[in-house]
Amino acid sequence: MKAAVIGAGRIGRVHIENISMAVREIEIKTVADPFINEDGEAFVRSFGIENVTKDVDSVFADPEIEAVLICSSTDTHADLIMKAAAAGKHIFCEKPVDHSVARVKMALEAVRKAGVKLQIGFVRRFDHNHRGVYDAVRSGKIGTPHILRISSRDPEPPTIEYVRRSGGIFYDMMIHDFDMIRFLAGSEVTEVYAKGAVLVDPAIGAEGDVDTAIVTLTFENGAIGVIDNSRQAVYGYDQRLEVFGSEGSVQDENDIPNTVVLSRREGTSYGTAYQVMWDRYTRAFIDEMHAFADSVINDKVPPVTDLDGLYPVLIAAAANLSLAEGRPVKISEVDE
Amino acid sequence: MKAAVIGAGRIGRVHIENISMAVREIEIKTVADPFINEDGEAFVRSFGIENVTKDVDSVFADPEIEAVLICSSTDTHADLIMKAAAAGKHIFCEKPVDHSVARVKMALEAVRKAGVKLQIGFVRRFDHNHRGVYDAVRSGKIGTPHILRISSRDPEPPTIEYVRRSGGIFYDMMIHDFDMIRFLAGSEVTEVYAKGAVLVDPAIGAEGDVDTAIVTLTFENGAIGVIDNSRQAVYGYDQRLEVFGSEGSVQDENDIPNTVVLSRREGTSYGTAYQVMWDRYTRAFIDEMHAFADSVINDKVPPVTDLDGLYPVLIAAAANLSLAEGRPVKISEVDE
Amino acid sequence: MKAAVIGAGRIGRVHIENISMAVREIEIKTVADPFINEDGEAFVRSFGIENVTKDVDSVFADPEIEAVLICSSTDTHADLIMKAAAAGKHIFCEKPVDHSVARVKMALEAVRKAGVKLQIGFVRRFDHNHRGVYDAVRSGKIGTPHILRISSRDPEPPTIEYVRRSGGIFYDMMIHDFDMIRFLAGSEVTEVYAKGAVLVDPAIGAEGDVDTAIVTLTFENGAIGVIDNSRQAVYGYDQRLEVFGSEGSVQDENDIPNTVVLSRREGTSYGTAYQVMWDRYTRAFIDEMHAFADSVINDKVPPVTDLDGLYPVLIAAAANLSLAEGRPVKISEVDE
Amino acid sequence: MKAAVIGAGRIGRVHIENISMAVREIEIKTVADPFINEDGEAFVRSFGIENVTKDVDSVFADPEIEAVLICSSTDTHADLIMKAAAAGKHIFCEKPVDHSVARVKMALEAVRKAGVKLQIGFVRRFDHNHRGVYDAVRSGKIGTPHILRISSRDPEPPTIEYVRRSGGIFYDMMIHDFDMIRFLAGSEVTEVYAKGAVLVDPAIGAEGDVDTAIVTLTFENGAIGVIDNSRQAVYGYDQRLEVFGSEGSVQDENDIPNTVVLSRREGTSYGTAYQVMWDRYTRAFIDEMHAFADSVINDKVPPVTDLDGLYPVLIAAAANLSLAEGRPVKISEVDE
């Protein structure tokens, strides 16, 4: 399957490298990025990709290209999805689709009309640990889910410039967890209560954002859940899930690079957690691409569907409103 | 130090046995219980305790008795505290002091005026695991606390009769966690948001109670916290804490009876958690009594003070109001 | 059951305290120790024991005393067993019975003739972790044992005076493991190969002893096993077992005082292991006494029998010979 | 760097796939295998490799080829090493070089004379867990090594045909551990005592081999070590190391595919270990090739040197003699 990557920034390069090295079923024909520089071009060419262009529209015009990977900035996602759909290309789009519920819906509508596949880049669904929790839940091993818990903490806060353009912690960071918790619950969120605090960096607060948050969620099926996020866990990536149900509980422990245990006078210690997202989710990024290729090549429903592009955005919108007004917010209040 | 135990029910007997066997610094002179039966009396006498009486007031009249342990039902606590204080006895009282904030305050006022010691039976503060988390927090190892999490789940729901008289999940069960989270935070709660569900047993719902709950808490010092409770964890007692802060995170894993690891075709398994509270907290119940004796004998402030009898009740009251009205509730709203 | 303790040294005091506090079914009537000093006497009396004597023989003459606990030095064990047997007293004797196989056999013969109970103080059989491994093996969960492994390391070497009188690492330290590995295997050792080294303290080597050792054992039932010992694990007591069999493997992890996990920049750490044997085996020492009382009171075979007093001594003798001659030694070679 | 792979059996294909997908610095120009069939050829061609030949000598004649990977059967290794050395090719050779100490020495002599690089395929040195243990030892974190322990167990025994041609458990299976324990000790083995048993499959015994073994080793630097092997761990690959030293101990826990923890009535369970070697050592096989490429391209000493091809063979020879004669054997006895 021939594909084009749109956007050769950080995440675009990860996909380019992974596909070139480890995803044989996808061939990247073109990389399009209006802002690509010499370094970026050299990077792309080092994988034997010939077409590097600043003209994004050329991708949609190329009949050989079956699928596009949208890895550009969030504000361009909806437009590019609509253009790709119009051109009949299958689409992989990084999260989130957009911060506007209306624009997300418009983009999804275009996809549906065009009958192309759309997979959203919620890469954590492909993490081997989280997947193990999901499989245990789906197989009924813990019975009916009652309580869902996610702790998700980044090693260090992004730059203030990034924070400014991020849309806030709920759209930028917790959106992964909003997707994951729905995925685990097998049910949609109906109500959200968000509590936030500025405890890591006052500059984040100055931008009107929070760096620490606890969000309580109610699900259609009666389960309740809670997510906590922090922009700074000094010990590295810390991402853990738990689903507690009528027949037991399943959780994953944080992922660390090896199983080494060191016993010394001061106690027994395990290794340091991952410090870099690409290391933490190496396999997940590759598996995500295998899944996308599989859905296109074998005409399957993608494992992260169009509605998975919408619901997390609705939850994030509700969380923002809840934080602003200091009250629980129903999803229906933000669903335009 | 000579003491009397008031109430020879389940918890009273635990204290009688522990003190007789393992707490040499306390001598139980009298056990007083208006409802004691033959079995109860035989149990008490088997520990060489001679005075067994149905006359509770005789305890207060006995000048030899320095301290009383109030182990009767919750509705009698406040009155007994006031009587004991009036008689100049030091007091150990099981949790909670009362469901009425006003009555708690009245009892505490009486204690303060009498100048006697009062220790509340928040036994989990003495658990070796939770204590280890507390010590790590207090010693500054994780910096300033940002997020506090408690999961606390019982092996099976109490009888409906018990539920009916329990005052609800917040006064009966989560009150332990309200105390613990304040203890860990080193700061008082200012606001509470409670979400509850009836997922274990509809009969609990029929009593107007919930069996599953997530409560979000805001602390004076800016930290935020979350507690989840379930009346039924089929795998046994599950009680875990985490305090996440500016310099790291400290948590305890659930306690299991031994370190045995069994590897078979179907995977690797650890032992089953405790099924009975007395097994789970054996050492904590003993250490709690050592601490009470130490505070009386050596004239120290008890490790669980009078205010620790008040604040958890305030939080429980706020949680009840939050659940009833579906909104966050400030502690000041319930502090009469 | 009325008992006397002979020897009020370190181990004797542990039993006196445990029985007084936690083993209600045994009443210590007398403590006899020819070398007892004022401190020792005060210690004994603090538990309400009236009879403290330097005259050991008075114990055997007292018809009220049903059982004796022999806690004196190893060289006195065999004689005291024979005297106690002659007097018709049941016997608990600290390990090892003697360093001479012939004398052990003589003592056991006396016990058998007298028809009294004899329990040897292999306390680790009562450890909750090791017991869990044993139970898994006996219940058939790992099938037929193939490989048995024990690692057993002390926090620090004893004094050189102690080493000098200890009989060497095999009689003094590894004897516990010789008992345990037989217990786990459910089969007797037929051959021993011992490899030793002086790596901790040259002074130990100067006494003709080793401080580090690996011993390979062959069992009658075909299984093979290995034990490693070190006199100094700087991180504390480290005692772990593994039994690997046809259907799986069961092991215990080292015991640590709590389940606290601390995550900081430098990694994730668990607590420090126990530094003091009495802390490590608190419950085991108590359970050992319950078991002895149970065997006497209810006329049961003790859980550590007379032959358990013999076989580990045979293995230790074979290990010493193996180390001296640098070759595998059959048990039959040392069985006089 | 252009390379040829000699032998397209199981291990050859692993290297072909890994290099093609993940080791960009090596280009496989030729795959040579006298016995290659259509399937094998199709497999090779699927990675875009054009030259597939049955003529192994053509590899040595091709001036473009800088390095050869010898993945054929053990009996061909020594000859192929000598031919490759004569042709000036750098060499990666699967373990063991040969079962004859004399032939190993001849091959190594040829390599030394030719001045080419030789890396032996002891892939476990590249395992992320074992590497972590090694790094901790080398960095001095545990002080001076005193006791080294390796447990290494395969999920299921090989076929009897394989056993027959394998050279026995020491040359075929424990040779990995002989290499690893030297690597960890940083010192050479001087004496070996091997104990073996036939507990898994009598047919293995009928071939004169054992399926279960414990080997005790003495090192030049005074440390002592022990390795246990079983041909069948029903719960999957079980490979664990421990190095215990003067300042602590470092070990690795067995590797499992994820961190999922499931708590149910019957206890708490972790995932099943790996069942397939390629899954267990995926990254190690790739890292091994990166290291080989690095040593050739950047003219470095390979991380597994020629002597690493010799010493494990000497230890295996000593273990065989020890098992046959039931006595400890010095390495000098088998070093011709």
What does this structure look like?
- The structure is a homotetramer of 336-residue chains.
- In chain A, the strands form 3 sheets. A 7-stranded mixed sheet of chain A has the order 12-11-7-10-9-8-15.
- The model of chain A has no long low-confidence stretch (mean pLDDT 96).
- Chain A has 336 residues and is α/β, with parallel strands linked by helices.
- The radius of gyration of chain A is 20 Å and the shape is globular.
- Chains in contact: A-B, A-C, A-D, B-C, B-D, C-D.
- Chains A and D meet through helix 6, strand 12 and strand 13 of A and helix 6, strand 12 and strand 13 of D.
- Strand 14 of chain A pairs antiparallel with strand 14 of chain C, so a sheet runs across the interface.
